[in-house]
Structures are given as C-alpha cells and as structure tokens.
Amino acid sequence: MKKYRCLVCNYIYDPAQGDPASGVAPGTLFESLPEDWTCPDCGASKADFEPMDDLRLAPSGHRSGELFD
Ligand SMILES: [Fe+2]
C-alpha cells in the first residue's frame, strides 16, 4: 500500500496504520480517506499530500558504483 507525505509538515500517512485518532481504520488507502480528512499534525488537506515513490530509491537497470564517462 502506498504511503503519502504531507508537503507542509512531512507527516507520513501509512495506510497500514490508518489514522485512528480521526476514526480511520488501519488498512484504509489514502484514496479512500474522506475528502474532508486533514493532516493530523498540521491540518493540511488531502491536496497537500503527495505519494511516496519508494521505487525511485532503488532503480533497476544499473548497479550503483557504475560510472559513465
Ligand atoms: Fe501536515
């Protein structure tokens, strides 16, 4: 399940944990959050969140340490 990061305060919404303080059960996808859900830390709206692309950290295709000249 994809995590989302708050652009305002860097809070991470983890679908596996949900947001119990706001009545969001664990396992709730970000996309399934109510439109009026806001960041628990700073109150930013869903529009202020971006998906975390963890695949970007481990690109396939070439090895680290390989140099191009
Ligand atoms: Fe936030």
Summarize the structure.
This protein has 69 residues and is largely without helices or strands.
Structure explained in plain terms:
The protein is mostly loops and 69 residues long. The protein is 0% helix and 12% strand. It contains no helices and three strands. The chain has strands at residues 4-6, 12-13, 49-51. A three-stranded antiparallel sheet has the order 2-1-3, with no helix packed on it. Strand 1 and strand 2 (12-13) form a beta hairpin. The chain starts with a strand and ends in an 18-residue tail after the last strand.
Supply Rg. 16 Å
Mean pLDDT over the full residue set: 87
State the oligomer.
single chain
Helix amount: under 10%
- Strand fraction equals 5-15%
**Strand line-up in the sheet with most strands:** 2-1-3
Report on the biggest sheet: 3 strands, antiparallel
For the structure shown, list the relevant keywords.
69 residues; little secondary structure; 0% helix; three-stranded antiparallel β-sheet; 12% strand; 3 strands; single chain
What does the secondary structure layout of this molecule look like, with pairings?
Blueprint: E1 4-6, E2 12-13, E3 49-51
Antiparallel strand pairs: 1-2, 1-3
The chain binds fe (ii) ion.
